[in-house]
């Protein structure tokens, strides 16, 4: 199974997420293994889709309206009693943050007619509305206010600007039986998505000329565990109008299987409107995380980002952070990254020549990972596991002193190791980074998903710490996602997924080119690195998730020498 290959000069779409309110969901209403009473505060996302060759703007879903109390009374009571909401920023305000008005939107496609997706349609007075044809069955007869108990307002959709789409003659694409090539150029497909509500549709859009895709799943699932098959659709909860969250459970489950199949394809991002992480179990194990000094590197800011601050110093001094992760029940000590080694003269000659002697780079390893551990009376022999995110010199430290530790590495880094120094004299990494008989190489390609990430290994098997496949920067690059409390807090250690926080926030982009090399980039595969960064941004939208990169300057300046560093710990959100 595959998706259509790109044509010559293939049109594609830029897709931007739009804030459109938050909604409290009881986990056990939606997944069969949800903890009774546990609430997940989930976003109700909308998406702005811009065609690469047409000056047309397309919005998928409108989220929750800010004045939700102006819904029909039946909906207002439902919100008050079952689905509390918080709408600090609605879709209109989200568009305005990017300089757009509702009048700029040519098409509004509603995934379905539930109130947390229809928003306030009235400001979109120039837009053509698109919705699955079966939704007409929901709008027959009297509506509010003619019917005081009606769940749909009479002015919900403009009759002269609404197209009800008939999927009966749509064509298959990938695993999906029915799709509409909306623009006729293979850039955006509207997908028939039966099961949840009559007329429910999804979006499949190309995001690049060379094979990137995104799938927007609407309410095909209300919890990411349903997409990964870690949970099943819950039935029988009193909060539903029907027996479950879907009017046709069997059809919804079949469609979820299609989504799982497309999500596993290379370069396909899948966005459900309510992305979550696994819920905590009873007596959930977790980890405490402490920052460790791992040396510093001073380099030009414009080496990392496309828009360095004009009045900023020409160079910035970045930490090379390491992290001590301690399990709450088994007591294991897990070290993520080793930073810069203090005896820098023992790096391969290529590192000393190209980096340490570069006129614009200054490296300081006066305090390394080992001396940072010693501040908490911890020795290398006390460390059970060492996981190095990747084999760049500023993360590998001096691995030889951890003589009792088991090392954890991604199988994908092995080809690089075989081409290290001294086998290859000009290599910037050594062949002996990992001890031969104490290293576990993990093949993450078959690992299941977690949150927005396609592949992650539940390291301890108890949901406390996940090793996340993190492609793009260097073959074998991994990140760590770990719980920091028993009730739903997390931290994501992103290593070199990005080298500047502005790249994570979207305020800047990955820099390509230097005065001495116009094609130089810190990532071996920039496109895959950007896709992974997009996933990290999705993670940031989930409540109680902290994200940290290895070279996070602002956080380091604020916390240096404080309680977040060992023997203290990073505060759990």
UniProtKB/TrEMBL annotation:
Record has tRNA processing as a keyword: no
Which CDD domains would you find in this protein's record? metallo-hydrolase-like_MBL-fold (cd07730)
The superkingdom listed in its UniProt entry is Eukaryota
The leader peptide range reads none
Which prosthetic group or cofactor does it need? Zn(2+)
Q: Which GO terms describe its molecular function?
A: hydrolase activity; metal ion binding
Query: Domain Metallo-beta-lactamase, which positions?
Result: 43-272, 319-551
Which Gene3D superfamilies does UniProt cross-reference here?
Answer: Ribonuclease Z/Hydroxyacylglutathione hydrolase-like
Keywords for this protein: Hydrolase, Metal-binding, Zinc
Family, per entry:
Belongs to the metallo-beta-lactamase superfamily.
Q: What is this protein called?
A: Metallo-beta-lactamase domain-containing protein
- Higher taxonomy: Eukaryota, Fungi, Dikarya, Basidiomycota, Agaricomycotina
